[in-house]
Amino acid sequence: MKKIQIVNNQNKIYSEITTNATYANECHEFSIRMVVDGQEQYKLGNKKLNILPGNFLVINEGTVFGREIYSEIPVNTISILYDSQFLNSFHHSATAAQSLLLDEPFFVPENSAPVFLETIYPLKGDMRYNLLHLQEIINTDTTDEMLIDQYLLHSLINFYRIYNKEILTKSDELKALSYKTRTELFKRLNIAKDYIISNYNQALTLTEICQHACLSQTHFCRTFKQTFHCSPYQYLIQVRLGQAKHMLKNTNYEVNEIVSMIGIDNVSSFIRFFKGRYGITPGNFRTGIAA
Amino acid sequence: MTEELTYAEICVKEPRATLKFLTQYLGFVNVSNLYNAENPGRPGFLLHDKSGRSYFIALHADHDDYNSPIVINTDDCLKDYYLLDKQGVQFDGIPGYTSDGLRAVAVDNNGTRYTLLEHRDYNDEL
Predict the structure, then answer these.
(1) Which residue in the set B79, B83, B102 is minimally distant from A126, CB to CB?
(2) Cβ contact A66:A26 at 8 Å
(3) Which of B78, B95, B125 sits opposite A124 (nearest CB)?
(4) Distance from CA of residue A264 to its chain's centroid?
(5) How many whole angstroms separate alpha carbon A214 and alpha carbon A32?
């Protein structure tokens, strides 16, 4: 099932539920892409990114990409494609000086399209609430475009806050370096982070992740911790536990089935990790939701 | 059957205007006007909200023109803000993000402020 909603300012929302789909050589406006259930694989250049529940991906205008869904269970995805003019106007109002906005209220500089780091972002906080509300609204088949516009606008507000926190603030953590070196290093660390998220259920090795990011092991471990405030291994465990939590909440899989699906060796380690992070055992967590 | 009843005592400048605002715009249904034996001068109302929860609300005019802050929980603040704005309800600014969630403040003609609060749990990751 595929649903497309185009609002009057040419922003588009694609909502799709499918088990099998392949799209090659797509190229659109700036977009925010999330998965409600299941997972979707994107190919951007030589990067393969798996988008899971709890994450979202942004793709800049003009980037050519492919995407694929292949699953036994239906995968529910939502993509928001922002009209260039809408995005540029928002970006200008969010970044220009107040005096300029007052003096020249209708001026939007040419070629002012913002370019964001195309990486996997955490879908949490207000962004998550907002996109889930948007999904509910789409499911009601509303034709009220101004209502939808509210959510699209707030999704951008939320995204800019996440970008500020996840990209600008975190890249500043590498403050001892020059701007050029810092930018390149941050980009490579994000390639590693995306690789961990995309392959969280595989038996990953540090060597493999470092090779992927083109960084030596010692350099990678030191700078990863400096940026993300945890070791790569701890980060991998966090991703695995996050997915386990989603499955406990939204599926009927047994705990031991979930453990094998998220790449953790045994159930007792999983229970220990889960309790350590969330302060509750997986069984009690599920019971608490059901109650 | 035991029914949960929330009791709220609200000081407002114009009790009847507040009742009208609650029922006309915020989806409350006035089930019955109640006699308040302890304070006959204070009108009491049994209201149901959109989800069917019951409230006994005692509204009374305050001599110092004090308006109690009224907080109304909503499941979707943006949607309610948009729908009320469309009906002509005045808001004190656009919806804003707080540590409790998203909120918008509606103001009636008497200056009574109604905070629409969508409580959000920022610790819940998925």
Answers:
(1) B102
(2) yes
(3) B125
(4) 23
(5) 27
**Alpha carbons A61 and A27: distance in angstroms, whole number:** 7
Q: What is the pTM of this model?
A: 0.86
This model of the complex carries an ipTM of 0.81
Closest residue in A to B122 (Cα) is A125
Distance of alpha carbon A134 from its chain centroid, rounded? 16
| CA neighbours closer than 13 Å in the CB half-sphere of residue A275 | 9
Question: What six digits make up the tokens of B15?
Answer: 């009790």
Strands A12-27 and A64-82: antiparallel
Task: Please list, in sequence order, all residues whose beta carbon lies within 8 angstroms of the beta carbon of residue A177, skipping any fewer than 6 positions away.
Answer: A185
**Pairing mode of beta strands B29-34, B5-12:** unpaired
- Are A49 and A116 in a shared domain? yes
Residue A229, phi then psi, degrees to nearest 5: 60, 25
Q: What are the residues facing B47 on neighbouring strands?
A: B30, B55
Tell me the chain B residues in contact with residue A129 when contact means C-beta distances shorter than 8 Å. Answer: 102, 118, 120
Whether B122 sits inside 8 A of A124 (CB atoms) is: yes
Name the domain boundary from A170, A192, A216: A170
Tell whether the model's pLDDT for residue A288 goes beyond 50.
Answer: yes
**Radius of gyration for chain B, computed over Cα atoms and rounded to the nearest angstrom:** 15
Which of chain B's residues have a Cβ under 8 Å away from the Cβ of A54?
125-126
Which residue do the tokens 């009906």 mark?
B87
Give alpha helix (H) positions in A43-178. Answer: 84-95, 98-103, 125-139, 145-163, 170-172
Our count of domains for chain A comes to 3
More confident residue, A291 or A18: A18
- Partner residues linked to B71 by β-bridges: B115
Q: Are B52 and B98 in contact (CB under 8 A)?
A: no
On whether both A166 and A22 belong to a single domain, the answer is yes
User: Residue A223 and residue A18: Cα distance in Å, rounded?
Assistant: 39
Of A129, A246, A249, the CB nearest to B120: A129
**CATH numeric code, B5-119:** 3.10.180.10
Range of the domain at A83: 2-170
Q: Pick the residue of A55, A93, A133 with the most B CBs within 10 A to test the interface with B by mutation.
A: A133
Question: Within an 8 Å CB–CB cutoff, is residue B100 touching chain A?
Answer: no
pLDDT tens-digit profile of A93-145? Answer: 888 777 777 777 777 777 778 899 999 999 989 999 999 999 888 888 788 88
Whether residues A98 and A84 share a domain: the answer is yes
